[in-house]
Amino acid sequence: MSDDYACTARNETPLERADRNFAELLQELRVTQTGVQILFAFLLTLAFSPRFSSLDAVQRGTYVTTLLLAVLAAALFTAPAALHRSLFQQRAKPLIVRVSSRLAAVGLGVLVLTLAGSVLLVVDVTSGRTEGVLAGAWTLLVCVGLWGVLPRLARRPLARVEAARVEAVLVEEPDARPSGARGGAPRPMRRERCR
Asked: Would you tell me the crossing angle of helices 14-46 and 93-127 to the nearest 10 degrees?
């Protein structure tokens, strides 16, 4: 029901909503993709620095893993553009938005690991293994907190407001109640989601 309200409040068709959602997603991807490209370039240059030959096996393993994670993150963040291009004018915008959103979410997860690995490597080389592990773990926790926990906490008040709004609608519109609550056939509810 909250989705119906959001659609009505914007007064947009499902295709307009898909266009808006895709434009918003692309804007988000521009920000993250730039960061991934800078990080990837930094990692590439490390292999050609004079100090690279002095890395031990763990540091080299961390380097290679982090480099490959950066490549994967870049691929995940650019995949929505390729998907859009391959399905262009096929009337698949809602599908493109759903798949692209999932690709971006997975890309953020991979980016968290890439950032943690990069910090682990740099701090390990400059300050020692224990400090590197601690700094990498701290980076991982901060990113998970800001990108995963914070959005979930921010949703809680929205859910309470929505529940109050739905209750107000049920009080004002007896027809909106389920069929068992007040005789008659249930009013069909839209299942389509706005995002």
From this structure: 20
- pLDDT digits 0-9 by tens, 143-153: 999 999 999 99
CA distance 105 to 170: 35
Mean pLDDT of 138-146: 97
How many Å apart are CA 141 and CA 111, to the nearest integer? 13
**124-163 burial, b if ≥16 CB within 10 A, otherwise e?**
bbeeeeeebeebbeebbeebeeeeeeeeeeeeeeeeeebe
Helix segments in 47-149, DSSP class H:
57-86, 93-127, 129-144
Q: For helices 57-86 and 93-127, give the axis angle rounded to 10 degrees.
A: 160
For residues 65 and 67, what is the distance between their CA atoms, to the nearest angstrom? 5
Structure-token pair, residue 133: 């592990």
